[in-house]
UniProtKB/TrEMBL annotation:
Residues 233-384 form the Helicase C-terminal domain. The keyword Coiled coil applies. The keyword Acetylation applies. It catalyses: dATP + H2O = dADP + phosphate + H(+); ATP + H2O = ADP + phosphate + H(+); Couples ATP hydrolysis with the unwinding of duplex DNA by translocating in the 3'-5' direction. It is found in: Nucleus. Its EC number is 5.6.2.4. It comes from Potamilus streckersoni. Keywords: Acetylation, ATP-binding, Coiled coil, DNA-binding, Helicase, Hydrolase, Isomerase, Metal-binding, Nucleotide-binding, Nucleus, Phosphoprotein, Zinc. Its cofactor is Mg(2+); Zn(2+); Mn(2+). This is ATP-dependent DNA helicase.
Length: 532
């Protein structure tokens, strides 16, 4: 599909240069445009900033009639329409707040042969809820003016994605209603489960799928241990920002609205210019923070994941995660807001075992919630693999660590520590012994209690003779416990109280094998003195 001898190839190249002022195409752009111009269904998976929009803007100019673009956010549509009008491309949008006159004018243009309209942006709600609009589309289709359906952020169809929008499900009828109209799906989400789900929902099982690489060579990925004491953790983030990124733009992602409020207070008290952004703040306040940040009046936005889609500042030098994200996918997307200008930028995640349980008690009701969470835990506790290779394998890419160029904490020659593989079978068996002991006493143990008993601390009746922790370093014990969790030697058992959900640890599906001595557990450890 990367040929340039299609009937439209010459015009494509001309318009690319004359209208959009683009000289050469990026990987996957030509393939995608050729497929969609051949009236075939296509899905393009490309990281944010990769250049997905051109793949339908340009074909829209080469096709007669109108390209319908479904997009989840009015702010995204506004940006795109502004950009298109600058290039003198006729584009319009319809959403919940469009006035009657505009609706009438646009709907007339949809069905009149000599109207200039090329691209029409709508929210999924518009399609799902307006019968009159659907009737107009039907008419446009009959007239042969419905040239293409573009679905932006198409992962919103799937409940397994990180951004499910119920109205996107409705798009499933489009293929049946308009069988001749090629569908072009765009997303930066590459989880194969989500993509398979999307194909099914949209009724395009045989669509062409193109995927650009997800590697972001200018992003430095790093995981740091988070202090268990909140003021110390805040001091560390403060120093990090102050020393490494003074007066530079960044984002600090938090796990909850409450955490975002707290971190805002703490960083403000220490003298950093921050703004807070989460769903409980009024829209005007959110917009004020966003604008002030864009204008460099504040340097850091402390936010929940509500600060996400449509955030497009080129010079974000750092993205810090104050707590664990809920999946690798989320981590990649959130971190990916750094370094859009291709300059070196840092993505630093502060990890601590306790954060796993904060997240797990939130996500365990989602279909693959725990699986996704344990995926990112594996990333955090890994002692030697290139961070990029973990990310790449998550996106189904093969990765050669040599290509990291020292741009992660495990490849960086300045940080590199040697690791040693050690047998921890006996220690893991001890953890199971502690759990069995508690069960006999009809007691439930949270992770903290397990660690206590393991170290022969805490209530005397919870301690077991012969059980011995491998180290006095709590971080080492936490790592082993996390590893047992993601490997299924132990599992979480959730209990509801009126105020919260508590995660207790119990033997997991692979516990038997371990207790019976049929399985050996080995882990990599840093070979420095303070860690076993
Ligand atoms: P995405 O939708 O994938 O996040 P955009 O479509 O917004 O990304 O494109 C990001 C930027 O890259 C835009 O400024 C766009 O003009 C630019 N761009 C896209 N394709 C090319 C190209 N082939 N050459 C140069 N710049 C491009
Ligand atoms: Zn690396």
């Amino acid at each position: 599909w990367d040929r340039s001898d299609f009937p439209w190839s010459k015009e494509l190249e001309d318009k690319m240069k004359s209208v959009f002022k683009i000289q050469t195409l990026r990987p996957m752009q030509l393939q995608t445009m050729n497929v969609t111009l051949s009236n075939k269904d296509c899905m393009l998976i490309m990281p944010t900033g990769g250049g997905k929009s051109l793949c339908f803007h340009l074909p829209a100019l080469l096709s007669k009639g109108v390209t319908l673009v479904v997009s989840p956010l009015v702010a995204l549509m506004e940006d795109q329409i502004m950009a298109l009008l600058k290039f003198n491309v006729a584009a319009e949008m319809l959403n919940a707040s469009t006035n009657k006159d505009t609706i009438k004018r646009v709907q007339e243009e949809m069905v009149s042969h000599n109207a200039p309209l090329k691209l029409l942006y709508v929210t999924p709600e518009k399609l799902a809820k307006s019968k009159r609009f659907m009737a107009k589309l039907e008419k446009m289709y009959q007239l042969g003016r419905f040239s293409r359906l573009v679905i932006d952020e198409v992962h919103c169809c799937s409940q397994w994605g990180h951004d499910f929008r119920p109205d996107y499900k409705f798009l499933g009828i489009m293929k049946r209603q308009f069988p001749q109209v090629p569908i072009l799906c765009l997303t930066a989400t590459a989880t194969s489960k989500v993509l398979e789900d999307v194909k099914k929902i949209l009724n395009i099982p045989n669509c062409y799928v193109f995927k650009a690489s997800f590697n972001r060579p200018n992003l430095y990925y790093e995981v740091r241990e988070k202090s268990g004491v909140q003021t110390e953790a805040m001091d560390e983030i403060y120093k990090l920002i102050q020393n490494q990124f003074p007066n530079q733009s960044g984002i600090v992602y938090c796990f909850s609205k409450k955490e975002a409020d707290d971190v805002t207070t703490e960083l403000t008290r220490r003298g950093i210019k921050v703004g807070c952004y989460h769903a409980d703040l009024m829209a005007v306040e959110r917009s004020r923070v966003h604008q002030a940040w864009l204008a460099d009046k504040i340097h850091v936005v402390v936010a929940t994941v509500a600060f996400g889609m449509g955030i497009d500042k080129p010079d974000v030098r750092f993205v810090i995660h104050n707590s664990l994200s809920k999946s690798m996918e989320n981590l990649y997307q959130e971190s990916g807001r750094a370094g859009r200008d291709d300059k070196k930028s840092h993505c630093i995640l502060f990890y601590r075992l306790q954060d796993v349980f904060k997240q797990s008690s939130m996500v365990f009701t989602e279909q693959t919630g725990l699986e996704n969470l344990y995926g990112i835990v594996a990333y955090c506790i890994d002692a030697n693999r290139c961070r990029r290779s973990v990310i790449a394998s998550h996106f189904g890419e093969v990765w050669d660590k040599a290509h990291c160029n020292g741009m992660c904490d495990h490849c960086d020659p300045a940080k590199q520590k040697s690791t040693q593989n050690k047998d921890v079978t006996k220690y893991c068996q001890d953890v199971l012994t502690v759990l069995d002991h508690a069960k006999r006493l009809d007691q439930r143990l949270t992770a903290i209690k397990v660690l206590e008993s393991w170290m022969q601390k805490g209530p005397v009746n919870m301690r077991v003779k012969g059980v011995e922790a491998p180290s006095s370093n709590i971080l080492t014990l936490e790592r082993i416990l996390a590893y047992m969790l993601i490997q299924g030697y132990i599992k979480e058992d959730f209990h509801f109280t009126p105020y919260s959900t508590i995660s207790y640890l119990v033997p997991g599906p692979k516990a038997k094998l371990l207790s019976m001595g049929l399985e050996n557990v080995t882990m990599d450890f840093f070979s420095c003195s303070n860690q076993t």
